[in-house]
Write a structure and sequence with these properties.
Layout (H helix, E strand, L loop, with lengths): L2 E6 L4 H13 L1 E6 L8 H10 L2 E5 L6 H9 L4 E5 L18 H13 L2 E4 L2 H10 L7 E3 L15 E7 L4 H6 L2 H9 L5 E5 L6 H7 L5 E5 L3 H10 E6 L8 H8 L3 E5 L4 H5 L4 E3 L4 H9 L8 H11 L2 H13 L2
Parallel strand pairs: 1-2, 1-3, 3-4, 4-5, 5-6, 7-8, 7-10, 8-9, 10-11, 11-12
Helix pairs in contact: 1-14, 2-3, 3-4, 7-12, 10-13
Amino acid sequence: MKKLLFVHNRQTAFVRIDLHILRELFDVHELDVRSKWKLRPFETIRNARDCDIVFGWFSSWHMVLPVFLAKLFKKPVVIVTGGYDTANLQEIGYGNQRKWFSRFVTNWNLKKADLLICNSDFTKNEVIGINHGFQNKIRVIYHGIPAKQFNPKPKENIVLNVGNVSRENMHRKGIKPFAEAAVLMPEYRFLQAGRWIDDSIQTLKQNAPNNLEFLGYVTDQDLTALYQKSKIYLQPSLHEGFGMSVAEAMMAGCIPVVTAIGALPEVTGKFGLVIKSLSVDGILEAIKSLADYPYTPNEISDHIGQNFTIARRKELLNQCLNSL
């Protein structure tokens, strides 16, 4: 069995899924580098020397040493990229491509990698925009969503949004317009789930109407229950490399109300209600169009279950990695 060094700097849902997939295919050593103090250079040297493949999630400073060592020991490098590392949103201060040093580090990793895995066509085009020469080593492999976990159940008049509450996400994830829309739609309960990262939660709470609740961090089990009972999932994002929460909500039968930005149209397909202008009025217009919405929760769920499977991601990852 081939040995694989799996490097990441945060264990999000999609990172955990890939870890599980790859542990079924390879002898995996996980290197969790959430801070510079966890880099563990001697352990990294030993594992880079002994592995057959270096596999990294996101291209940032945490990948520099593993990529350098992989090239030194003549081992292939695979980087899953797309998100903060490839974004350049100056207006909200988001993305590694905004500043010269973070851009240099990110793009050096991407240049040295033998294979770049993107989770959407949008991300693929964003990476090609960084360097047109990258297109020959890009493979688009969509995320896989665990099907059985999110079976649709009877819906309530709930509008849900999931994402960490921070100054950055107030705009990037659309938490601010989500909260503002609640004021004008008292017939719905607006629920927001996600860790409170900074003091921006205080501003949101000060202006929150009675039908808006900030739940903070919720367990995976509680999040699944929220998806299952919510009628609408609202994601007015300014950038999405895929939209994992949108796909999870749709798997549970939620009607997705999203911006036509990033990969969101790829994920939602014909089932998404598109916010035509990123404003409270745009959100209200999209939600009011529910009266003519033709699809059932099971049809929404089937779209995700058929197009974004863990089995398909596992198959394509296995093909790509074994071809190196």
